[in-house]
Amino acid sequence: MSTATSVGRMTNTTTRLDHVVLWVSDPVAAAGFYEKAVGLEPLRVAEFTAGKVSFPSVRVNEETILDLAPRTMAERMRMLPGSAESAGHPVNHVCLSLSSGDFDALRARLQEGDVPVSHIAHDSYGARGNATRSFYFRDPDGNVFEARHYG
Fold first, then answer.
1. Which fold has domain 1-89?
2. What would be the CATH architecture of the domain defined by 91-151?
3. In this predicted structure, which of 15-29, 71-85, 88-102 has the lowest mean pLDDT?
4. How far apart (Å, rounded) are the C-alpha atoms in residues 76 and 62?
5. Please, are residues 28 and 54 in contact by the beta-carbon 8 Å criterion?
6. Closest CA to 120 of 96, 92, 35, 131
7. CA 51 to CA 12: how far, in whole Å?
8. Any idea where the VOC domain is (predicted)?
9. What is the CA radius of gyration of the chain?
10. What is the pLDDT of residues 26-69, one digit of tens each?
11. Burial of residue 8 (number of CB atoms within 10 Å: 0-12, 13-18, 19+)
12. Is the N or C terminus of the chain more exposed, i.e. has fewer CB atoms within 10 Å?
């Protein structure tokens, strides 16, 4: 496994986060939440609705997506023993790193949409050191997200 030698310096051989799969009750509604409240680009929603793909996704950035897998898919998860039981299995949270302006815009959109948000914390440690500000929110399926920005 290759890693970056310094924060912020990425190469084609650097290990990156490709996707996170979230179990959701309604993938179309979840995609709508991530588009409207979080500001992420929905992917494959029409194809999912037409029955052409198993789940839609939303784009976090050019390299990373969140897959919005319906809980009904859990029974088909057979790649490893115990995989089917992973639906609803807890993940503490997923953290999104944003610019200062995007951080403020996200918080405003969430509050405008009556999505509860935590207080703003300062100096939380993460992949790039201590974040200037961070807060938490949940999606409609209970998945917890942290939003942060660095100095």
1. 3.30.720
2. Roll (3.10)
3. 71-85
4. 29
5. no
6. 131
7. 35
8. 16-150
9. 16
10. 999 999 999 999 999 999 999 999 999 999 999 999 999 999 99
11. exposed
12. N
